[in-house]
Amino acid sequence: MTSVKEQEGIRKLMVFLQEWDSAHKVARSHMLNNFIKSNDGKTEPELELEFAQGASLFLARLTAWLRMTYTYSTCLNQLLKSIGIFLSAASGRRYLIEFLEIGGVLILLEILGLNHLKEEDKRECVKLLQLVANSGRKYKEFICESYGVQSLANFLATSNSAEAQEDVQVLLDSLGHGNPKYQNQVYKGLVAVLPCASPRAQQLALQTLVVMQDLLGEAPAILVEPVLGALCSVHLDVQYEAIQLLKALMACQVRPALLKGLVALLTPRGEKAFTSCDETAKDPATLCPREPMLVYIQQAAAAKAIGVLAKESAEVAEELIQLKVVHGLMVAVGNLDHAASQRHASISLEYFVRTFPFVEERAKAALGHTLFQHFMDSPETWYTKMDPVQAEELASNIVDIPRDMARMQSAEG
Known about the structure:
Organism: Rissa tridactyla (Black-legged kittiwake)
InterPro entries: ARM-like, ARM-type_fold, DUF5578
Order of helices and strands: HHHHHHHHHHHHHHHHHHHHHHHH
Low-confidence stretches: 270-290
Structural class: mainly alpha
Strand content: under 5%
Protein name: ARMD1 protein
Pfam families: DUF5578
Largest sheet: none
C-alpha cells in the first residue's frame, strides 16, 4: 500500500505529464528548460525520486516528440540535452536501453546528415552517441551496425564547427577501441575523410589514424593515395600529421607503395610541372596557375617526409635510394618556382650524401665541385644563390644509382 507521500508524488507526476501532453511548443520549451536546470547531473535514483518512480514515462514522451519533430528543429537542442540527462545518469542503464528500443541512435545519426539543422544541435547528437558508446562494446557495435561510422565521418568532413569536429574525433576514437569487430570499418571511415576540404577534419582524422595504427598492425592499400594527397595541404599541421602517420606505416606492408609514391611526388608530371601555362595565360579564368602550386606544396612536403623517414631507418633510406630518390631530390632543389621545395629537398639530400659515400660521389659529379661545396657548407641556404642555368641542370639531372648499391655502401660503412 502506498504512503500519502508516495500518492502525492504520483499525483504531481500525472499532473506534469498531462500538462506536457496538452502543451504547445512554447510551453514545452519552458518545461524543458526547467527540467534541464533542475536535473542536470542527477543519478538514476535521484531522477526516479523526482518523478515518483516514473521517470521513464517522461523519457518516453521526450523520445516520441524527438522522433516526430527532429526534421523541423522544434526545441531540438533542449530535447537532446534533456535526453542527455537520462543517458548520462549514473546507474541509468535502463534509460539507455529504452532510448535504443525506440530507435534513438538511428534518429541521432539521421540528424547529423540533415544540412538545414544547426551545428550546435548536431554536436548534442554526437555527445549523446558518445554516451551510448561509453556504455560498452555491444553499444559501440550497435552504432557501427547502424551505419554510424559513415554518418560520423561525413559529419566530420563537412562540419563548420571545430568543437563539433573534435567531439566527433573523440567518438570515432572510442568506436575504434574495444570494438574489434568494427575496427577496420572505423579506420576506413577515417581514411575516407582525408580528401575532404576541411583542414581541421583532415588533421583530426590523421591523428586518430596514427593512434589506431598500433591496434591494427596492418593498413589497407586504399590508404596510400589519401595519405600522400594530404601532403598537398597548405596547412602545416595537416602535413605534420600526415608525416606522423607515414612514420607509423613504415612497419606495414604498404611501405613500398608509400615510398614509391613519395619519390614520384618529387618529380610531378615531368617537365610540365615546372613550366608556366603559356597556352592559357590569356585566359584570366584559368585554374592552371593555381594547379602547379598545389603540386609544389606536395613536392616540398614529400621532400621533407623523405628526410624524416630516412633518418628514422637506414633500411628505409636504402629503399629510397633504390627508388632513385637522389635524382628526385635534385629535381626538387632545382625548382626555382618554390623555395620550400628547394629547402626541404636540400636538407634531405644532405642526409643521403653524408650517410652514403656513393651518393656523395654521384652528387658531387652532378653538381660540380664548387656548387657541391656550397651545398655541403650550407644546405639550408645554398640554393638561394643558384642561377637559372644551375637550377636547370639539377631539374634535368640524370643521376642514377644502381640497384643495391646503397645496401652495399651501408654494409661497407
